[in-house]
Amino acid sequence: MTLRSWARLALGMPSFVRTGQIGDGREAACAAFVEATAPPGDIDAALTAIDTFARREAMLVNIGDEKGPLLDAAVRRAAPRLVLELGTYCGYSALRIARAAPAARVVSVEFSAANADVARRIWSHAGVAGSVTCVVGTIGDGGRTLAALADDHGVTAGSVDVLFIDHDKNAYLSDLRTILDRGWLHPGSVVVADNVRLPGAPGYRAYMRRHEGTRWRTVEHKTHVEYQSVLPDLVLESEYLGS
User: Fold this and answer.
1) What integer pLDDT is reported at residue 152 of this predicted model?
2) Which residues pair with 136 in a beta bridge?
3) What is residue 157's predicted lDDT score, i.e. its pLDDT?
4) What is the pLDDT of residues 90-134, one digit of tens each?
C-alpha cells in the first residue's frame, strides 16, 4: 500500500470510528467494482475483486488475503452449521466463511447500516445471500440485537460453532463474555479474533492467556496487518473447552 493510501486511511479514521466507513465512498465503490468485474455467482471472483480493489484502489479494513486463509482453515476444521460474525464491514470475511463452509448459515452483526447495504450487494452478486445474513446493531446495545439474533436468526444455547470477531477492538472481550453468558457457545466452538496486535485488543489477549488450558485452548498466529507486509498483527484462534 502506498504512502498516499496510508494518508487517506489515516485521515478517514475519525469517520470510520464514528460511522463504520472511511468517509470517501470507498466501501460503495468496492461493491460497484465487484459487480463490474466478478461474474455473478462466483465467490472466488468476488473475493479476488475485493482484494484487488483494496490493493490497487483504496485500502479496506477487512481481514484480507494474508490472514484470510487462517480464518478459512479454522472454519473448515470446525465444520460449522452456524457461524456468528461480529463486524461485517464490506462482507469479505463472511464470503470467505461461506466458501469454507457452504452448508453453514452465517449471521453477521454490523453497527453501520451503510456497510450492511454494501455487504448485501456483494453477497447477492456472489450468490450467497440465501445463507449469509446481516443484522444491523451491536451486542452491547442494551439487548435489542441479542434478542434479534435469538428470536429471528436461531442463535440459541449451544448453537454457535464458530464465532469470528473483527469489530470494535474495545468490545472484543465484553462481547465474548456476553455471548458466553448467553450460553451460545458449546465445548468445541471456535473463536477467531483478528487485529489482536494492531490496532490491538490487549484485554482479550490477556483473558485468553489467563484461561489457557482451563476454559480455552488458543493458538496465536503471527501475521501482518491487512494488505501490507510491514506492520505485524496477530490472529487468535481459540477453542472453547467449556466452563
Assistant:
1) 97
2) 110
3) 98
4) 999 999 999 999 999 999 999 999 999 999 999 999 999 999 999
Pairing of the two strands 105-110 and 82-86: parallel
**63-240: CATH superfamily:** Vaccinia Virus protein VP39 (3.40.50.150)
Ramachandran region of residue 25, left (φ > 0), alpha (ψ -120 to 50) or beta? left
pLDDT lower than 50: segments of the chain: none
pLDDT of amino acid 101:
98
Question: Position 140: which residue type?
Answer: G
For the annotated catalytic residues, the residue numbers are 166, 169, 194-195, 226
User: What residues does each domain of the chain span?
Assistant: 63-240
Rounded to whole angstroms, the Cα distance separating 99 from 112 reads: 24
Reduced to 3 states (helix: H, G, I; strand: E, B; else coil), residue 242 is coil
Enter the C-alpha cell of residue 127.
450468490
Residue 45 pLDDT = 98
Residues whose CB falls within 8 Å of the CB of residue 82, separated by 6 or more in sequence, listed in order? 104, 105, 107, 154, 155, 159, 160, 161, 162
Q: Check: CB of residue 118 under 8 Å from CB of residue 134.
A: no
Q: Which helix (H) or strand (E) holds 175?
A: helix 172-182
Angle of helix 144-153 relative to helix 172-182, nearest 10 degrees, comes to 50
* pLDDT at residue number 16: 84
| Contacts (Cβ under 8 Å, ≥6 apart) of 69 | none
